[in-house]
């Protein structure tokens, strides 16, 4: 194993969902070990069970510190939290035990990254109901990361091929999302988008900002948020030398970005950004009654540590069957490794 490769911590996700089995499938790919040294945070017994479900021949190495990892292809190094009773675990069912295990796996991978024992983190899918049943009242991964890294300005970025989207708000009601469209927040997200694209190697990123209302408000006829909040934020970004356009009507903005007019898009709320990404990356095959592709990566911007994630949920309907695709997880691992390598290069300069 190349000691120069970044160490990537992967939280297994909710053990009642597809997280552990797609993790096993991903780590059965030799290409993963050519770009990074992976460690899974979670339960070793659950990962052994997942490998059997996934139909991959992998051993599980239970470890208590990152230094105990072997990083050998054919073996999954699991930072064993010993918090899943596999005999009582029911795949596809919400439970407090599974919610607790999912939360503890995320918390541990954050701790490892903050202690610089891993170079980047990748998160498997969690079930928010199960996590809340376990007593952890978070709306999603992003909020957990923000709290445990003490981060104030952060946002979610979704990526599929050349389409990239960041969000002004994510896991809140639509009513609250509208209220969250404030100049300061829009400007902060534009700046996060700009800095991230610069880190991608794009010298002068082209940023498209979505309107909140139909036709981007039509000069105030369909809403006032563009005139009072979004346009002033764009104007201030212009004064900073950022190449930003908008507000662009949401019904055309994403087609322009997909075609290459923008390097990244600022969406105003969760579904405004998620729907176009998933139309591109998620493809349902009605004849075979399954997804032919589930691609896309979720990246949290603004954190002091690197975090990427799958762009899908726990898929309880597929859990325990071994049929779930690991495509999105592979992409998330690839992005995490890429970011980790770039961060090391930046620190050397």
Explain what this protein looks like in three dimensions:
The protein is α/β, with parallel strands linked by helices and 349 residues long. It has helices at residues 19-27, 44-54, 96-114, 128-133, 141-149, 174-179, 183-199, 225-239, 250-258, 270-281, 327-348; strands at 7-11, 37-42, 59-63, 75-80, 120-123, 155-160, 163-167, 207-210, 244-248, 264-267, 282-285, 290-294, 297-301, 307-310. The strands form two sheets. It has a twelve-stranded mixed β-sheet with strand order 3-4-2-1-5-14-13-6-7-10-8-9, sandwiched between helices. Strand 11 (282-285) and strand 12 (290-294) form a beta hairpin. Helix 1 packs across helix 2 and helix 7 (183-199) packs across helix 8.
CATH superfamily of the largest domain: Isopropylmalate Dehydrogenase
Categorize the overall geometry: globular
% residues in beta strands: 15-25%
Strand order of the largest sheet: 3-4-2-1-5-14-13-6-7-10-8-9
CATH class of the largest domain: Alpha Beta
Count of individual domains: 2
Structural class comes to alpha/beta
CATH topology (fold) name of the largest domain: Isopropylmalate Dehydrogenase
Total beta-strand segments:
14
The end-to-end distance, rounded to whole angstroms, is: 26 Å
Q: How many helical elements?
A: 11
CATH architectural designation of the largest domain = 3-Layer(aba) Sandwich
Walk me through the topology.
Blueprint: E1 7-11, H1 19-27, E2 37-42, H2 44-54, E3 59-63, E4 75-80, H3 96-114, E5 120-123, H4 128-133, H5 141-149, E6 155-160, E7 163-167, H6 174-179, H7 183-199, E8 207-210, H8 225-239, E9 244-248, H9 250-258, E10 264-267, H10 270-281, E11 282-285, E12 290-294, E13 297-301, E14 307-310, H11 327-348
Helix pairs in contact: 1-2, 3-5, 7-8
């Amino acid at each position: 194993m190349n000691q120069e490769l970044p160490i990537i911590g992967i939280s297994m996700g909710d053990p009642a969902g597809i997280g552990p089995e797609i993790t096993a499938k991903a780590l059965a790919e030799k290409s993963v070990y050519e770009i990074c040294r992976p460690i899974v945070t979670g339960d070793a017994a659950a990962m052994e069970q997942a490998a059997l479900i996934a139909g991959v021949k992998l051993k599980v190495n239970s470890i208590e510190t990152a230094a105990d990892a072997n990083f050998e292809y054919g073996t999954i190094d699991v930072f064993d939290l010993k918090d899943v009773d596999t005999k009582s675990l029911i795949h596809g069912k919400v439970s407090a035990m599974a919610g607790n295990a999912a939360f503890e796996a995320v918390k541990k991978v954050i701790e490892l990254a903050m202690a610089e024992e891993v170079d980047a983190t990748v998160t498997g899918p969690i079930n928010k109901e199960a996590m809340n049943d376990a007593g952890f009242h978070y709306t999603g991964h992003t909020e957990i990361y923000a709290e445990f890294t003490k981060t104030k300005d952060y946002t979610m970025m979704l990526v599929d091929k050349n389409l990239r989207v960041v969000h002004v708000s994510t896991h809140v009601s639509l009513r609250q999302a509208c209220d969250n469209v404030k100049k300061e927040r829009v400007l902060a997200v534009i700046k996060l988008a700009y800095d991230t694209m610069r880190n991608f190697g794009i010298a002068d990123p082209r940023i498209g900002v979505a309107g909140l209302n139909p036709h981007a408000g039509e000069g105030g006829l369909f809403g006032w948020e563009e005139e009072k909040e979004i346009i002033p934020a764009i104007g201030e970004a212009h004064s900073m030398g950022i190449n930003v356009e908008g507000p662009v009507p949401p019904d055309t903005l994403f087609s322009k970005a997909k075609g290459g007019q923008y390097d990244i898009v600022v969406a105003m709320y969760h579904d405004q950004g998620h729907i176009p990404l998933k139309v591109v990356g998620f493809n349902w095959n009605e004849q075979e009654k399954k997804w032919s592709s589930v691609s896309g990566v979720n990246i949290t911007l603004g954190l002091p540590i690197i975090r990427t994630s799958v762009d899908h949920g726990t898929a309880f309907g597929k859990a325990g069957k071994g049929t779930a695709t690991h495509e999105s997880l592979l992409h998330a691992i690839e992005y995490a490794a890429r970011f980790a390598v770039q961060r090391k290069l930046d620190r050397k300069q």
